[in-house]
Amino acid sequence: MIDSKKMTKYGLKIIQESKQNGKWNFIRKIKQTTNIPDDLKKSLLEDKAAWDNFNKFPKSSKTMYIYWINDAKKVETRLRRIKKVVERAKENKNLG
Fold first, then answer.
1. CA 52, CA 47: separation in Å to the nearest integer?
2. 68 CB burial (10 A radius; 0-12, 13-18, 19+)
3. φ, ψ for residue 66 (rounded to 5)?
4. DSSP string of 26-88?
5. Do residues 50 and 90 touch, judged by C-beta distance below 8 A?
């Protein structure tokens, strides 16, 4: 948008503030999270409803779930989060 001269002054201000307070890198990191991790995929595939529902979630919900799992520091935390995502997907509960 900047290159095509469509960015507003307000938009530029928000970008600058985000870069200064660290939110810019966080947002970029989330947007790079698109592939379903193998361990999550395996767990989702064990329950057809969970897999089907997860694939119907909006991209934003899937991305946030994947980011949440990938952000776990410990293996136990990651496994607990995967279990939670599978449960929520089975119940058709996205982040909306």
1. 9
2. middle
3. -65, -45
4. HHHHHHT--SPPHHHHHHHHTSHHHHHHHHHS-HHHHHHHHHHHHT-SSHHHHHHHHHHHHHH
5. yes
Domain boundaries of the chain, sorted by first residue: 25-90
Per residue in 32-74, pLDDT (tens digit) is: 556 899 999 999 999 999 999 999 999 888 988 998 898 899 9
Task: Give the integer Cα–Cα distance in Å for 88 and 74.
Answer: 21
Nearest to 92 by CA among 67, 60, 55: 55
pTM: 0.68
